[in-house]
Each structure stands twice: as structure tokens, then as C-alpha cells.
Design goal:
- The chain has eleven helices and eight strands.
- The protein is of the alpha/beta class and 334 residues long.
- The strands form two sheets. A six-stranded mixed β-sheet has the order 1-2-4-3-5-6, with helices on both faces.
Amino acid sequence: MRRLLVFLAALAGLATPAAAQEQQFADLGTCGEITDCRIGYRTHGTLNEARDNAVLVPAWYGGRTEAMAFIATAPLLDPERYFVILVDPIGNGVSISPSNSPSQPLGAFPALTIADMVESQHRLLTEHLGIDHLHAITGISMGGMQTFEWAARYPDFADRFVPVIGSPRLPAYDIVRWDTLNAIRAWERACRCPEARAINAGFGLTTRPIGVANDTVAREDAFDFIETRAAEDTFDEGTSWDLERQGEAMIDHDISRHFDGDMELAARELGRRVEMMVVVSREDRIVAPGPAMDFARLAGFPLLVTDEGCGHGDFRCNPDVWTAAAGAFIAGED
């Protein structure tokens, strides 16, 4: 799945001092069934005297905060204005994960949920950093799913929420795609064979918009593309388990659980209680935009639909189309 990933010091007396942008950790003991629960994070900017400028940004599927510094820049999140907290979600190989757990390694690592990620982040803020309210929460892709879960679970914890190419609940297309990818990954662990890597390579191309895929690979080169990508795919068992557990968490994700399973009720209730802007990509073939679009319309939230031809990669292809709008919303300039 690597090809799909197109991508201050700490408060005195509350956390170990560290330079801004340096990898930091919070040891939380246990997180539900997960032992040795260690959460990674990085900060940009400074918490102001009023303690009302903190913004939380959870990472995407397989993402790590070391690659997220671009988020802590104007016009989205200017570190001169905000205290930006980038968080490594459980299962990403930095925070506690199948690949690094000393007591629950690899397949022994418990089933993981988006709610587990959010709960650990809430504890990171309240228990480790001494922060009990945020100015905003925003995230991209699986980070957007965590943003939706934050709004449903802790609607009063932040003033503003901006899920970007995320979803309040995956539709059948996404569930089947992620479950198929996890099945390929399990097969690759079992057989350690080139056939599994070849299927994974071909499957990766199908996640791109059709026009982009056809522009990327000429018809006569299709089989060579699969063979080359399969040869480049380096297998790591720990990473395989990390990605599978995060994939399972996305499949399980459903914020309507907080509202008796009724997504329309969830939209109406959160429409009354939170300030949210929803950003989706029209041609997204990794996180289908429909559920987030429907949710925004039902709730009456502002909705930005990007159409840059890059599908799930719109946020990278032309960041100007959403960073200024999302930044203005977070700043309260909407």
C-alpha cells in the first residue's frame, strides 16, 4: 500500500521538554486492550498564554508526523499563530503498533479502531500535555476519519473541525477495497511470493482516477508496469501488520454508533453542536466522497469539493484549492 500514500517546547512540568518538530512520546500505560501504549507526536509553534490556539492534526493511513510539516504552514496552520500538534496514530509504526509492540507483536496486536486512536489522542492532550480544549482538529484521509470521530465523541472539545478527504462511515465500495487489500497483504505474509506482490501492484493502479491511470501507463506497457512495481515492492512483516490493523480500523469506522446507528440523526445533532467544514475530492477512489458529502449537506456544514484530476491525491496536486479555504475556516474568517 506504500504507493497509495501519495503522500515548543513541551509544557513545563507536564511533559518532557523537547525542541519543536522533534519526535516526542507520551507513555499512557494501556489503551483499552492495547498494552505498552506509547503515542508519538511533534509540535510546531507555541501554546499562547490563553491556551486557546492549539490545533490537533492526526496522521493519515500509514502516515507519520515526520512527513507532515507541510500542514503546519500558512495559509492552513501558521505556527506563528497556532500551536500545532501532529499526532502519530496507533498502528503507524511510530506509536504503539504491531511492528514495535514488546508485549503484543505482529498478529497478537489487538483489533484496532478509529475510536482507539481518538481516545489515545484525548489522553495525550489531557493527561500528558495538560490541554483540555482545542481551537481546531483537522486531518487528511484516515486523519479526516479521526476528525469525524473526534466531533462525534467529543463535540465540545474543539471550536472547529475540518475533515479532509475523510469519511464519517465507509460505503460498501471502500469496505470491499480495503478488505481485499488486507487479504492480499495476508496472502503475501503467508506465501512471501512474487504473485502476491504483482497483484498488490496491479491493485494499486486501480485506486487512481481512470484518466490518471491511463496517462501513467501506456496500454502496451501495462504488464511491464505490474512486473516492475512488484519487483520494487520490499516486504516487511511488521509494516504489513501495521497497515492491516489500520485498514481494519477504517472498515470498522462509523460515527453513527454514537447516535443509535442513525447517520441522519448524527448529522442533525452535530449540525447543531459543532462548527465543521468538510473537504472531499470528486474523483476519490480510495475514500469515496459520497458519505462525507451527504453528511455535510444533512448537517448544513460548508462543503468544498476539489476536482483537480488527482483523486485522493488532490490535496497534494493543488493544495491551494483547499488550504486557503480550510485555513480561513479554522481562523474563523468564513
